[in-house]
């Protein structure tokens, strides 16, 4: 009988709460150690998700920089073609001035790309030498970094390139080499971030699964608890009714 009397009239609120919320541990009283584990797991999940978002932003910036340097490469290739054409000794000074006019336009295009390429307003190609972008990549705040390319005319060494006088094709070749190396670095950094994002996704998935095993309501078990609770309540109500009937009969018998 003690088991029946200890139940009470209403089903425990935590059973209904666990069924409605899907979480069997909502307060420390329902499981202090489980609550601590769940909170730590949630911290890790949140941290890894934030780190993933940081790295996705980094890959976006790197992709933008790569697209911009691809355009610069096209300008440099055209400049080299024009410079080779200007190397023809049969051209007049006026012909070379026409060629230089197109080269100046290409240089202006490179300068504008370097100046305007940005991510969230942060310049990517028009920056000081050796500038490093840093970010936290996981729940532990592990630092990762990336670099872009300084693609200004001065950095590429072609701000004064002029085919109307003496010039050296190596200036264009060196600029193209700098851009090509920079693009290779951009690609390598993008691949590294994508691999790290994949790792974060795996950790987040596994941690979420572990959190689910620790904290999610086992519906079959809780439905059984609820059914047992209701059965015991029915028994208790029947017993209370019987006691009341017995008491009534006892009172009647006293007056007979």
Describe the structure.
The protein has 256 residues and is mainly alpha-helical. The chain contains 7 helices and 4 strands. The protein has a two-stranded antiparallel sheet with strand order 1-2. The protein has a two-stranded antiparallel ribbon with strand order 3-4. α2 (13-21) packs antiparallel against α7 (219-254), α3 (32-86) packs antiparallel against α4 and α3 packs antiparallel against α6. The longest helix has 55 residues, at 32-86. The protein is rod-shaped. Mean pLDDT is 81; it is low at 1-11.
Question: How would you describe this structure in keywords?
Answer:
single chain, 256 residues, mainly alpha, two-stranded antiparallel sheet, 4 strands, 70% helix, 5% strand
Give a quick precis of the structure:
With about 260 residues, the chain is mainly alpha-helical. The protein is built from 7 helices and 4 strands.
SSE diagram, text form:
Elements: H1 2-5, H2 13-21, H3 32-86, H4 93-116, E1 118-119, E2 122-123, E3 133-136, E4 143-146, H5 153-156, H6 170-215, H7 219-254
Antiparallel strand pairs: 1-2, 3-4
Helix pairs in contact: 2-7, 3-4, 3-6
Radius of gyration: 37 Å
Structural class: mainly alpha
Return residue spans where pLDDT drops below 50 for at least 5 consecutive residues. 1-11
Shape descriptor reads rod-shaped
Largest sheet: 2 strands, antiparallel
Distance between the amino and carboxyl termini? 33 Å
- Sheet-strand content, in percent, reads under 5%
């Amino acid at each position: 009988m003690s088991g029946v009397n200890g139940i009470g009239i209403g089903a425990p609120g935590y059973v209904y709460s666990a069924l409605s919320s899907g979480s069997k541990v909502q307060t420390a009283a329902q499981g202090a150690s489980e609550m601590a584990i769940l909170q730590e797991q949630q911290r890790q999940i949140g941290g890894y998700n934030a780190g993933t978002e940081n790295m996705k932003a980094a890959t976006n910036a790197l992709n933008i920089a790569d697209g911009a340097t691809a355009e610069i490469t096209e300008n440099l290739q055209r400049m080299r073609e024009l410079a080779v054409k200007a190397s023809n000794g049969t051209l007049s000074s006026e012909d070379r001035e026409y060629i230089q006019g197109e080269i100046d336009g290409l240089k202006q295009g490179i300068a504008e790309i370097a100046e305007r390429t940005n991510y969230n307003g942060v310049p990517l190609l028009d920056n000081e030498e050796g500038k490093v972008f840093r970010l936290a990549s996981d729940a532990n705040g592990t630092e990762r970094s990336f670099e872009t390319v300084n693609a200004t005319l001065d950095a590429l060494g072609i701000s004064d390139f002029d085919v109307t006088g003496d010039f050296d094709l190596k200036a264009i070749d060196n600029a193209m080499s700098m851009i090509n190396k920079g693009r290779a670095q951009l690609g390598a950094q993008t691949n590294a971030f994508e691999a790290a994002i994949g790792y974060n996704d795996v950790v987040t998935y596994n941690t979420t699964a572990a959190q689910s095993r620790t904290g999610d309501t086992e519906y079959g078990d809780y439905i059984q608890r609820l059914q047992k609770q209701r059965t015991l309540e029915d028994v208790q109500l029947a017993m209370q009714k019987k006691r009341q009937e017995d008491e009534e009969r006892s009172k009647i018998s006293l007056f007979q």
